[in-house]
Design goal:
Layout (H helix, E strand, L loop, with lengths): L7 H29 L2 H20 L9 H19 L2 H32 L12 H6 L3 H15 L8 H41 L2 E5 L6 H6 L3 E2 L34 E5 L11 H15 L8 H14 L5 H13 L12
Antiparallel strand pairs: 1-2, 1-3
Helix pairs in contact: 1-4, 1-7, 1-9, 2-3, 2-7, 3-6, 3-7, 4-6, 4-7, 6-7, 9-10, 9-11, 10-11
The structure holds zinc ion.
């Protein structure tokens, strides 16, 4: 097969999906480092210390708690440690995010200006925006999520519910999952900030908006990839390549569609399309169909959902090279994709 040179429309998509998304991710990491501080390490220390205490008191980590007094003391120490570790987490996250919000919006505006430069060949300054009231209020939503993990953990760590070390470990695990909730919250709020700035910039240019999905997007986001709507319109509600996930949720103005979604919108105007080559939205739609056919996805996504999506793609007609459709056909027949990792590199 002849090697095809990437056209400008594909390069535009890859600018947003690659470089710009990586920059947003690095930005999230800086906020998370401040919010989480050394919390992961301290949960590790708590786990090790309490397993040692359990072994000293009852003989081994597998042994049942045979002495109620010793069990009460061990659990009291764990519960106090969880309160101490999680107490400052939500305030620290809110502070780190509040401090970063203006920069997040500016990052979105700057990235969108860079995209327009590439798309139109005309240099322009970023549209200046400030974080909306709605966005500033979203920051504090983390305190309920952390309190929920803490309360569930404390409820699990009662002497009448803990018989073995594994029961105590499960409680510590629930408390520790607050760190994951914090990371997800940061990703979501930063994603909303970036897309808010982008939407303001799109309004300003008078162009339409197009959905740019991640290369390993879920079956729902993949159904939005390359969709173009008016700047002030919503995208349709409940799209999915997986028929059993269709019809859920509200019509979104923009991504993020779900927690940890790093999809983006950018401006799109038909007049920017080059003659004779596939347009950027069409390139995005084709790429999304390819990723459904190949099963490219995160390990956290359901394998069954990816298979249902691939079957649906084949049913409606994938419009992809035979070799790619064959991968989908084999996976559907086998009931699983052999490898779901997105290939890296050009
Ligand atoms: Zn997404």
């Amino acid at each position: 097969m002849m090697a095809r040179r990437p056209d400008r429309n594909e390069e535009l998509a890859h600018l947003v999906q690659g470089e710009q998304t990586d920059e947003v991710r690095a930005f999230e990491d800086r906020i998370a480092a401040r919010a989480l501080s050394d919390l992961e390490a301290r949960f590790g220390v708590l786990t090790r210390r309490s397993i040692t205490a359990w072994t000293v008191a009852f003989g081994s980590p597998q042994a049942e708690a045979s002495n109620p007094g010793a069990l009460r003391r061990i659990l009291a120490v764990i519960r106090a440690a969880i309160r101490r570790l999680l107490g400052p987490l939500a305030p620290r996250t809110e502070q780190a995010l509040s401090d970063a919000l203006l920069e997040a919006v500016r990052l979105g505006a700057r990235q969108h200006a860079a995209f327009l430069d590439e798309a139109t060949g005309r240099s322009r300054r970023p549209v200046s925006t400030r974080p909306s009231q709605r966005l500033r209020e979203r920051v504090s939503a983390i305190s309920d999520a952390v309190a929920d993990r803490r309360d569930r953990a404390l409820a699990m760590l009662r002497p009448n519910l803990v018989r073995r070390w594994s029961d105590a470990q499960a409680g510590i695990g629930v408390a520790r999952s607050a760190t994951t909730a914090v990371r997800t919250h940061i990703t979501t709020v930063v994603g909303e900030a970036v897309n808010e700035a982008t939407q303001a910039a799109i309004d300003y240019t008078g162009a339409k908006k197009v959905w740019i999905a991640e290369r390993d997007a879920c079956v729902n986001c993949a159904a939005y990839a390359g969709l173009v709507v008016a700047a002030d319109a919503k995208f349709p509600a409940g799209l999915s390549w997986d028929p059993s996930q269709r019809g859920r949720g509200k019509a979104p103005d923009a991504p993020p569609l779900h927690p940890n979604c790093r999809c983006r919108v950018t401006a799109w105007d038909e007049s920017w399309a080059q003659q004779g080559v596939i347009s950027m939205p069409e390139a995005l739609r084709r790429e999304a169909r390819r990723s459904i056919a190949r099963g490219w996805s995160l390990p956290t996504e359901s394998g069954a959902a990816r298979i249902r999506a691939a079957r649906e793609l084949l049913r409606v007609g994938a419009g992809l090279p035979k070799s790619v459709e064959e991968v989908a056909r084999l996976a559907v027949a086998a009931g699983r994709f052999q490898d779901r990792t997105v290939p890296t590199g050009p």
